Amino acid sequence: MNFSLFLTELWNARLSLLSGLGDTILISVASVILGSVLGVFVGLAMTYGAKWLRFIVRLYIDFLRGTPVFVLILACFYILSVVGLDLTAFQAGVLALTLFCSSHVGEIVRGALSAIPQGQTEAAKSVGLTFGQTFVYVLLPQALRQILPTWVNTATEIVKASTLLSIIGVVELLLATQQVISRTYLSLEFYLFAGFVYFLLNFVIEQAGRAVERRISIP
Amino acid sequence: MSPILTISGLHKSFGKVEVLKGIDLTMQQGDVVSLIGSSGSGKTTLLRCVNLLEDFEQGSIELAGQSIGYKQDGGQRRRLSEREIARQRAMTGMAFQQFNLFPHMTAIRNVMLGLIKTKKMPKDEARAIAEKWLERVGMGQRRDHYPGQLSGGQQQRVAIARAIAMNPQIMLFDEVTSALDPELVAEVLAVVRDLANEGMTMLLVTHEMRFARDVSSKVVFMHQGRIHEEGTPEQIFGAPKTERLQGFLANSEF
After folding, report:
1. pLDDT value at position A83?
2. Contact criterion met (CB < 8 Å) for B96 and A142
3. What pLDDT does residue B254 have?
4. ipTM of the complex in this document
5. Distance of alpha carbon A127 from alpha carbon A133, whole angstroms
6. Distance in angstroms between the alpha carbons of the first and the last residue of chain A
7. Domain CATH number, residue A150
8. Structural domain tally of chain A?
9. Which residue in chain A is spatially nearest to B164 when comparing CA positions?
10. Sign of dihedral through CA atoms B33, B38, B39, B40?
11. Alpha carbon distances (Å) from A131 to A53, A138, B50, B51
């Protein structure tokens, strides 16, 4: 391992690597936000929906969770273009990760809502709250606290899954790294470096999650 | 004086099991009525029908002149809208066996929630009322504590304050001391007794026979979904007429 050569090449490649990192972050943030919003609705439908709706949503969750993310990404990229929906590789990738994220978040939300004792809803009703008010002021704040650790875990899963977008040609951090390697032949050094950056990303996410958890914990 | 609560011909089933088989009960303003009976007799279900936590299939409940939960519309029995039902629920205050305080809110926030969201009060006014009632149940010092930081008895007193702060027409107590350690029962019963002495109309399900005898203006003994015997505490506890009630009282602790 030639350390000074690596540093020189790292400096030379800094812009393409940074742009790859930017894409990785952008993909992850977009997928987690979109997937979480969709996931909350999925969880709501699973908990309060009519029987037919629960059945459909259950199929949705099981199908997405039973499919490898890799297959999901390929499907969004290749199949959708066949039916005339032309997405860029970036859009198709974000779509795949969003769907993946929503199925996980949906399951988490459902679990958290059903873990809240029935008495909470009854107490809220007995002071005259409507269903909407009960959800917003009583159920959701309790559910969110419970969801947080698992949700942070899902976010780190998404960051890791974003590497799979390199297959369909999205130049995120992994593909950017591979392009540098093909130019410099410093494969060990740059793979180690990329691994370290991914670790750092997820480490930051987890620490942030813990900090929030501490802040909102109920005494 | 017209009665504040009139229950007539109330029927309620869970699936095929009929748990209330025609209940008639009238209460005047200021009455304290205790429902006693073995578990499964339907007393808790009856209480939960009054604030519509349970639907009922037949009969009617009238509270302060309003038909609760349903209306007659051209011979058809219709359930009221969710919003209307929510409004009617706020006319009754309910204290639960398991307290059911909102764990993510402090004591005072628990009391304020209904005042702000249902009664649309400004925060300051809601806070003043909540403080007053927490003071009254002896929880003024602990108003900024979370439920998890309070004992069972303290939680139940906050829960009672939360219900009564809404200024309900009637208070419903569902076995409010059953989940408490024996040494905490007295502090909660003292609060309930105070409210009774002040003329609050109350319907309570209880296993505390001595307490029921002390505070009630009327005691109702339920058995298998029907009112089996009712009367003044002296009649019910002093001279029970039916064999069932005699048997029930013999098995109850005094």
Report:
1. 85
2. no
3. 59
4. 0.91
5. 11
6. 52
7. 1.10.3720.10
8. 1
9. A127
10. negative
11. 19, 10, 19, 15
